[in-house]
Amino acid sequence: MINDEIIGCTKCDRLIKYREFVEKHKKYNEEYWSRPITGYGDINGRLLIIGLAPAAHGGNRTGRIFTGDKSSDFLVSSLYSAGITNQPESRSRDDGLIYIDSYITLALKCAPPENKPLKCELKNCSVFLFNEIRSMVNLRAVLVLGRIAFDSYINYLKTENVDTKNIKFKNFAYYDINNIRLYCSYHPSPRNVNTGLLKKDDFVNFLISIRSYINGNI
Ligand code: SF4
């Protein structure tokens, strides 16, 4: 239901043009998905992961969140090392990837030019994100990947009348808010990874600590 609504969404003129008419990368001889990208995984899981938006030649090409690009390679191999996915690779919609006890979604469901969404586009799309969060009845922890995902979750908390003024984005910080722990990380973009801002070992250890928290071990 909610996913049908997302896939059929035409609220943002700029993004419709971009997702449908972005020039195909030479190395991909295939039809692009070119529609909004839904969340993926177990909506009854205890962990929610929020990313920014589909990449033009990643999710916008393959039709699945964090699939078929460099950010996906880093993220999913790290999640696998922490026991949060069943395999280290995310290449295509039929590759058998499973998110264990967790669900992953995006602050913005359509690929934006240069990975830079407009405020009005994030606001349009927040309805879907907020519905996804409210659907997760077993939620214990939320991991936000980057500042835009963080801001989107803060906007959700405001709708729940949470006082958010002392909650600041900081890499590997966490906050306990109404029985749900919010974890913050830099986005696993090639720029953050290649410059060493986000290091694989540190990120995996952070994910392991999230999993331990969910399982009640810390
Ligand atoms: S970004 Fe969200 S609100 Fe905008 S067109 Fe895509 S799905 Fe709809």
Describe the protein in words.
By secondary structure, the chain is α/β, with parallel strands linked by helices. It has a single domain (2-214), classed as 3-Layer(aba) Sandwich (Uracil-DNA Glycosylase, subunit E). 37% of the residues lie in helices and 12% in strands. It has helices at 2-7, 13-21, 59-62, 70-81, 119-135, 147-159, 190-194, 200-214, and strands at residues 40-41, 47-51, 102-106, 141-145, 174-177, 180-185. It starts with a helix and ends with a helix. It binds iron/sulfur cluster (SF4). Iron/sulfur cluster (SF4) binds at residues 6, 9-12, 15, 36, 108-110, 121, 124-125. InterPro entries: UDG_Type-4/5, UdgB-like, Uracil-DNA_glycosylase-like, Uracil-DNA_glycosylase-like_sf. This is Type-5 uracil-DNA glycosylase. Belongs to the uracil-DNA glycosylase (UDG) superfamily. Type 5 (UDGb) family.
Q: Roughly how many Å is the radius of gyration?
A: 16 Å
**How many angstroms does the end-to-end distance come to?**
36 Å
The H-and-E topology, N to C, reads as HHEEHHEHEHEEHH
CATH architecture identity: 3-Layer(aba) Sandwich
Widest sheet, order of strands: 1-3-2-4-6-5
Number of strands: 6
- Principal-axes geometry comes out as globular
- CATH T-level fold name: Uracil-DNA Glycosylase, subunit E
**Major sheet, described briefly?**
6 strands, mixed
CATH class: Alpha Beta
Averaged pLDDT, please? 95
**Roughly what fraction of the amino acids lie in strands?**
5-15%
- Report helical residue fraction: 25-40%
What topology does this entry show?
Layout: H1 2-7, H2 13-21, E1 40-41, E2 47-51, H3 59-62, H4 70-81, E3 102-106, H5 119-135, E4 141-145, H6 147-159, E5 174-177, E6 180-185, H7 190-194, H8 200-214
Parallel strand pairs: 2-3, 2-4, 4-6
Antiparallel strand pairs: 1-3, 5-6
Helix pairs in contact: 4-8
The structure holds iron/sulfur cluster (SF4).
Iron/sulfur cluster binds next to helix 5.
Protein name: Type-5 uracil-DNA glycosylase
Keywords: 4Fe-4S, DNA damage, DNA repair, Hydrolase, Iron, Iron-sulfur, Metal-binding
Organism: Picrophilus torridus (strain ATCC 700027 / DSM 9790 / JCM 10055 / NBRC 100828 / KAW 2/3)
